[in-house]
Amino acid sequence: MSNKLEPIRPAEAKEMYLRERRTDASDATIKAHDYRLGHFIRWCDIEEIDNVNDLSGRDLHRYKLWRQEDGDLNQVSLKTQMDTLRVFICWLESIDGVPEDLSTKVLSPEITPSQNARDVMLDHEQATAILTHLEKYEYASLEHLTVALL
User: How far apart are CA 58 and CA 139, in angstroms?
Assistant: First the structure.
């Protein structure tokens, strides 16, 4: 049995989703989802999508391509963006905002462990400056201890 979809504008859906997530997610997670979904809302405005009920798998694919080009994103960043969108679309399914199982059509790139790692090294001068700051302003903090040990 299929539920009747209830019309909802993309921006309103995002705000409802973020309010709901505040009950089970950290402030940092809420801010990250707000930022990532902001791009989706912008895309909906550009594409003149006024009701998320109208979204299809093809729309989600077009968004993915647009987001990758618009943000010049690497695979890891694009995966993060699409994974957040999948969670949002799944939530929309639960409130009859999008067709059932639409979240399964959010395609996220596969990444290798090496793509998900950074190899940037902190040089001696930077480390010394950071340590000096931490010794003066955040003595014995977790950050101070971590940098001191490193």
Answer: 54
Residue in 75, 81, 65 with CA at minimum distance from that of residue 33: 81
Backbone angles phi, psi at 108, to 5 degrees: -110, 135
Rounded Cα gap, residues 80 and 86, in angstroms: 10
Model confidence pLDDT, tens digit, residues 70-129: 888 888 899 999 999 999 999 999 999 999 999 999 998 887 665 554 556 777 788 888
The whole-model pTM stands at 0.74
Cα–Cα distance for residue pair 126/135, rounded to 1 Å: 14
d(CA 80, CA 95): 23
The DSSP line for 70-124 is HHT--HHHHHHHHHHHHHHHHHHHHTTSS-TTGGGG-------TTTT---PPPPH
Give the pair of three-digit tokens for residue 49: 């999508």
Output the furthest CA–CA distance in the chain (Å, rounded).
65
Contacts of 7 (CB under 8 A, 6+ apart): 51, 53
By the 10 Å C-beta count (0-12 exposed, 13-18 middle, 19+ buried), 16 is classed as: middle
